[in-house]
Specification:
Largest sheet: none
Strand content: under 5%
Structural class: mainly alpha
CATH superfamily of the largest domain: Tetratricopeptide repeat domain
Helix content: over 70%
Radius of gyration: 24 Å
Order of helices and strands: HHHHHHHHHHHHHHH
């Protein structure tokens, strides 16, 4: 099979300094370069089967004989392969996005059960009418009719959150995540419910997952900024607020007003600490244009 050579352009100048811990990253990057287009899951699996051994050969071929022998003799090859499986999606955004989009289409589709769909729609109508108790009953019936369908769990969590019952909101978003761990709706909204409960540790864990899984989505960054502000870590709050603001602005989202308000609040706190110069320097470094006369 044709060997992939693009890895040569990203290797350090001195290959003898290459560390074993770098190999999973280099192999993952090489596999990602090898996968040009993805038509469907079957084509992705076929390309992974082809590209994986080619990538290992390409990277190991750049090592000297002593290092190759060391890796094989100490049984490190299996460990390296395991790390590639574990970390590959972190180093290949296009494959990660394809897989996540495919799973989202699978889990956020309507149920095959007519009864479940009917109860779900009835729950949505009750929710829109602010009849939250009826909405709860209908969403529970939808879950009973199709226990594997995540959308009723998400909407039940939203209903409880709207009612101010944040513990039950956390519970049902958790049930949704048990079935679909990457569910962005449940991850984001459960984090909000955790925040209302002042459970900042779990809220930050959700936001960390959102940032890892959906780096183009501003909600993870904004949520992290908000929690950081609440625990008075203003410099970290500023970093993430600025990042989320850039994404909101680039997509012309109405939520850019929220990030503007948070950034202004962070400025006030940093000004009280005599660190307004740090605020402006961080803003400048991030590429966000701060209009001075609009800052109180």
């Amino acid at each position: 099979m044709r060997k992939i050579i693009s890895i040569c352009f990203i290797l350090p100048l001195f290959l003898n300094l290459l560390q074993a811990q770098d190999l999973p990253r280099l192999i993952s990057t090489e596999i990602c370069h090898c996968i040009d287009t993805i038509e469907n899951m079957d084509s992705l699996e076929a390309k992974l089967d082809r590209c994986f051994p080619d990538a290992i050969d390409a990277v190991f071929g750049l090592l000297d004989e002593n290092m190759q022998e060391l890796l094989y003799d100490e049984g490190n090859l299996d460990k390296i392969i395991d790390e590639v499986y574990e970390k590959f999606l972190s180093y290949c955004p296009k494959v990660r996005k394809f897989i996540l989009d495919d799973r989202e289409r699978s889990f956020y589709k309507m149920s095959d059960s007519q009864k479940a769909r009917e109860y779900f729609e009835a729950g949505n109508k009750a929710f829109d009418s602010k009849d939250y108790k009826s909405a709860v009953k209908f969403f529970l019936k939808a879950i009973k009719a199709d226990p594997q369908w995540v959308l009723p769990y998400d909407n039940l969590g939203l209903t409880y959150r709207t009612m101010g019952n944040y513990r039950k909101a956390v519970k049902y978003y958790g049930k949704s995540l048990q079935k679909y761990p990457e569910g962005r709706i449940a991850l984001q909204n459960q984090a909000v419910a955790y925040t209302y409960l002042n459970d900042f540790l779990h809220a930050m864990s959700n936001y960390d997952q959102l940032m890892h899984l959906y780096p183009e989505n501003p909600e993870g960054y904004f949520g992290t900024a908000l929690i950081s502000f609440m625990i008075k870590d203003y410099e970290r709050a500023l970093e993430y607020a600025l990042y989320s603001h850039k994404i909101y602005v680039s997509s012309d989202s109405e939520h850019k007003k929220d990030s503007e308000k948070l950034i202004s609040a962070i400025y006030e706190k940093m000004k009280e600490q005599g660190r307004d110069s740090v605020f402006y320097e961080k803003a400048k470094q991030s590429g966000v244009n701060i209009i001075y006369d609009k800052i109180p």
